[in-house]
Amino acid sequence: MLSVILPAYNEEKMIAVAAETLAGILDEAGIEFELLFVNDGSKDRTWEEICAARERDGRVCGVCFSRNFGKEAAMFAGLEKARGDCCVVLDCDLQHPPEKIVEMYRLWEQGYEVVEGIKHDRGEESLFHRFAAGSFYGLISRATGIDMASSSDFKLLDRKVVDTLNAMPERNVFFRALSFWVGFKKTEVTYDVRERTAGESKWSTRALVKYAITNIGSFSSMPLHLVTVFGIITLIISIVFSVVALVQKLNGTALGGFTTVIILLLFIGSVMMISLGIIGYYIARIYDEIKGRPRYIIEEFRG
Ligand code: UDP
Ligand code: MG
Fold first, then answer.
1. Chain-centre distance of CA 93, in angstroms?
2. Exposed end of the chain (fewer CB within 10 Å): N or C?
């Protein structure tokens, strides 16, 4: 059986459409399936729509969070509840073309364990968004050692991979990169990102920046090494200035260094503050992990 996981946040207009489209496509292909909607603390009628869809078709299941925990949490809740031999994660706004699921499923039948959906074209995006996404993927690709520029959350995972992901104790997870990180027999399908047909994108610029920082933090300790680099740069500068100061002292021209002192003081102060901030950020992450709070809280489950 195939489990289709659909995270939904304020998607009341899309639930029925998504359920019907997917059921149509998968029935036609003769694939046995369940549709697992995860209501990520929506403020509209998303949950009611999911329940209604379940009444129409018993293969629709629903998980309801107690509040908004974010798309990552929603995807992991779906993976935990899924009963299929393989799982597909897909946006319920249908921007990921559902027909591709059949292609992915056939590849799975041939023995592939991870089928990545690769964006052929990123769709309509502003120039700023394009630039920000470019820098983010540049960093994360270097951190993971994998080219992630056109990766997405649209992918099919075998039961083995799902169990591996479920067994991971991390709280702060980045699904897209983890599925690369775990390895397994992998292949790709490319797809074109579609326009949204109803509702609107849930990602504000602020949310995207936060998402980028969290994900870099959870996949890379590079910023910590940056602190050492800062230290080395300041050391080099201080050696140069020490030599200059000593020479001036020996020449008897060492007066009037006030400007230099102020500049150096401010410079060293800010480098130290930035370094402390970076270290503090990682300590905060350790604190978050050590508290061991659940990634999400399920209020209701239908299935
Ligand atoms: N989503 C979610 N929780 C959130 C934000 C988004 O479950 O906090 C879901 C949303 O319902 C959709 C998918 O994640 O199914 C992608 O969101 P969206 O379409 O807003 O992102 P975009 O396509 O603009 O990147
Ligand atoms: Mg979308």
1. 18
2. N
